[in-house]
Design a protein that fits this description.
The chain is mainly alpha-helical. It folds into 2 domains: 144 residues, Ribonuclease III domain (Ribonuclease iii, N-terminal Endonuclease Domain, Chain A), CATH 1.10.1520.10; 66 residues, Double Stranded RNA Binding Domain (2-Layer Sandwich). Helices cover 53% and strands 9% of the residues. A 3-stranded antiparallel sheet has the order 1-2-3.
């Protein structure tokens, strides 16, 4: 890793071996691996590429999951997708590739391998995917993502998200109106209350949930509604 210098010579052959692609546009690769701190005025760094790479990664992973889990519903696919494209996973892929060895930074960034710099490694991973896409097209980016995300995709889980969040997304997709929750009853002493809550969405039958807190009762009502309409099983 180089610090505090203008962009110089990168070890292009090692990077090509690492990612399985030799760049025709070397400047593009160097920009993808350059943090803003290494360039005076912040010019020629990876930030714009990161924006594009995030979208390319999302598309390719969505394709991968769509073919890998043919019976999964939209909600499950969304959960898996979020697990695979988040910063934690992108940083983990970068760490597997030892990408930090090739990131160019300024003197103010001293250690790219610590947890505090995981976001930098994740951003550079996305910028590298964008650079692959711009240098050689979607197939090159797709091959890289399949190689480095394929096993992770198989190991991802479709664990249920927060029920209220899931119900809100479902309701927006159905009618464009968010669910509302109202306390129907509160019983028991202050140290051990019991709540009954009604969840309502215009145009469909409301659902009742119970719990030892208002939030727990709302979650229960949301879960029951999701199960009633087959969103969750």
């Amino acid at each position: 890793m180089t610090r505090g210098k203008a962009v110089g010579e990168f070890d292009h052959s090692r990077i090509a071996d690492m990612i399985g692609h030799t760049f025709a546009d070397r400047e593009l690769l160097e920009r993808a691996l350059t943090h803003a701190s290494a360039r005076k005025g912040g010019q020629g760094n990876y930030e714009r590429l990161e924006f594009l790479g995030d979208r390319v990664l999302g598309l390719v992973v969505a394709e991968l999951l769509f073919s890998m889990f043919p019976t999964a519903k939209e909600g499950e696919l969304s959960v898996r997708l979020n697990q695979l494209v988040n910063a934690q996973t992108c940083a983990a892929v970068a760490d597997d590739l030892q990408l930090h060895q090739f990131i160019k930074t300024g003197a103010d960034i001293k250690n790219l391998t610590g947890k505090r710099m995981a976001s930098v490694r994740a951003d550079v991973m996305e910028s590298l995917i964008a650079a692959l896409y711009l240098d050689a097209g979607l197939e090159a980016a797709r091959a890289f993502v399949h190689t480095n995300w394929g096993e992770r995709a198989r190991a991802s889980t479709g664990a249920k998200r927060d029920a209220k969040t899931e119900l809100q997304e479902w309701a927006h997709g159905r009618s464009g109106i968010a669910p509302t929750y109202a306390i129907v009853e509160r019983t028991g002493p202050d140290h051990d209350p019991h709540f009954t809550v009604k969840a309502e969405i215009p145009g469909i039958e409301p659902e009742i949930g119970t719990g030892r807190s208002r939030r727990a009762a709302e979650q229960d009502a949301a879960t029951r509604m999701l199960e009633r309409y087959g969103v969750w099983t």
